[in-house]
Amino acid sequence: MNKKIGIVTGGGDCPGLNAVIRAVAKAAAKRGWETFGILGGYEGLLEPRRFIPLDYNALSGLLVRGGTILGTANRGKFSAKVGHGESRGLPKELLDDTRRGMDALGISALVSIGGDGSLSIAQQMHEHGIPIVGVPKTIDNDLECTVMTFGFDSAVACATDALDRLHTTAESHNRVMVLEVMGRYAGWIALYAGVAGGADVILLPEIPFTYESICNKITEREGLGKKFTLVVVAEGAREKGHDFVTSGGQEANREARLGGIGAVVTAELEKRTGKEARVCVLGHLQRGGSPTTFDRALCTMFGAHAVELIAAGKFGTMVAYLGSQVGSVNISEAVGRLKTVRPDGSLARTARALGISLGD
Ligand code: F6P
Asked: 99, 124, 168, 307: which has the fewest Cβ within 10 Å?
């Protein structure tokens, strides 16, 4: 059967998007299907339609290439995410136009690769009768119903490498070094990288912190002869009783742009302890570059399984990493609420067991 499927990448980019695209196109080709890449997110399905055929030659080198060859968007007509667990309903006309776009291109099913925002849109499309399956992407690892999203392991590897580098300079100068990492509502990157990179203090969005607590840790270390302290702070972390630190103004229908908490914490710790402190903001470095080995394998399993879901007609589902297997869940179960760090979960307890301060 000659079937055409379309792939859309949406939301913030991350390592592994191209690896998923490659896996979908290869697994589809094995079934004799054609794959089209929709350019610039879902908007590529609207007039003027923008797409590329993903034939054999288009797939070379994609396994290791960062970003997305299709382009992506986290703003515009299809922006659905406005806050933690809040999403916007799309107008019926837009969903009709999307359907028309698919029909015009002869596409019978879509693979939507995205995080909570893009998959909330995928759910609305499914409810509108558009055949669609999802693939969970985000460096933040905050999507429910999958043990891990792809991109997360690569971001953690980047943050851990940064901590290793900051460790030696902190130690050489007897300084407090603060690393600000991404993690809007969920502190998975900060927690995993902090534990893997030997941080002394890890500040998460889920656990509001006090400066007294951080300073106590610094003093305790000084007493043990450790004249430096390594702090990891997620961009969404906040002092008890205070709000997020944002950078840039609020745009309509968009989440607030976070950033700056690292500098705030650094200045306050310098003031309170009298120790020299420096901040390093890792920012979008965490979203670039090649995926790790784990992410390459996960992306390839996700892409191949998305094609199986289409073949089985299981629309409205999302591929999910279930621990040792890749399976699927309903998109509706995965969106609308975020998977945040449990303060009493294994990794948080491990951190505390080792004497790492979580700032509370
Ligand atoms: O959701 C992924 C993420 O990297 C967040 O950690 C971060 O807050 C946001 O995207 C940044 O988005 P932008 O690229 O629009 O600055």
From this structure: 168
Nearest residue to 232 via CA among 199, 259, 254: 199
- Helical H segments across 197-285, by residue range: 211-223, 261-273
Q: Which residues of the chain have pLDDT under 70?
A: 1, 80-86, 250, 252-253
Looking at the structure, tell me whether residues 303 and 213 fall in a common domain. no
Cα 186 to ligand 1 centre (Å): 12
The CATH number for 321's domain is 3.40.50.450
DSSP 8-state code for residue 198: T
Q: What is the pTM of this model?
A: 0.96
138 lines ligand 1 (CB under 6 A): yes
Do 117 and 184 fall into the same domain? no
Nearest to 135 by CA among 308, 323, 342, 285: 308
Residue pair 140/186 in contact (Cβ under 8 Å)? The answer is yes
Residue whose CA is at the smallest distance from ligand 1 atom 10: 12
Is 314 inside a domain boundary?
Answer: yes
Q: What is the pLDDT of residues 5-57, one digit of tens each?
A: 999 999 999 999 999 999 999 999 999 999 999 999 999 999 999 999 999 89
Q: What are phi and psi of 175, to 5 degrees?
A: -110, 165
